[in-house]
UniProtKB/TrEMBL annotation:
Claim: Manganese is one of the keywords in the record: no
Family annotation (PANTHER family): FLAGELLAR BASAL-BODY ROD PROTEIN FLGG, FLAGELLAR PROTEIN
Location in the cell: Bacterial flagellum basal body
Domain of life: Bacteria
InterPro entries given in the database record: Flag_bb_rod_N (IPR001444), Flagellar_basal_body_rod_CS (IPR019776), Flg_bb/hook_C_dom (IPR010930), FlgC (IPR006299)
Family note: Belongs to the flagella basal body rod proteins family.
Keywords annotated in UniProt: Bacterial flagellum, Cell projection, Cilium, Flagellum
GO biological process: bacterial-type flagellum-dependent swarming motility
Protein name: Flagellar basal-body rod protein FlgC
GO CC term (a single one): bacterial-type flagellum basal body, rod
All residue ranges annotated as the Flagellar basal-body/hook protein C-terminal domain in the record: 133-174
Main location: other
Amino acid sequence: MLGGVFNTFDIAASGMTAQRLRLDLIASNLANVDTTRTAQGGPYRRLVPVFQERVRPFAEVLRERAAGFGGMSGSAGGVSGAAGWQTGGPAGGAGPALGGPALAGVQVAAVVADPSPPRLVYDPGHPDAGPDGYVAYPNVDPLMEMVNLLAATRAYEANVAVFSAARTLALRALEIGRG
């Protein structure tokens, strides 16, 4: 029972970590909304995270759970059911992830620069103006960044709520033994 709760902690923590990185990137984008020079040359380019599901191979989970029970005995489905990890598979016994991946949260696969073109503003007096008088500003839209900021904040809060609910369940489970 508690093993599943700890897994929930891990999944929620991965979500909070990913959303915190997203918030950091949004802050960087907003801070550089007028940066026309970078070390790479040209204006700052908006950065966005690429999220991907974090998958733990079932064999790894099975080994970990079997070690927690003093070694694996019986069938894989029996261990899976005893550990409470993945149940309710199509055959009714073994989990759907038997032999396949078991989900374990989210991770940031990469941070990429937005390929959209820079914003051109006519300002012939600007030191970075081209021969035509246009200055290339970053492709950062403050309004879109604020929308993304709200979405990241809500996602972070949702993960905090999951974490708190799992903590409450774990504490209640411990109180059962006290009588």
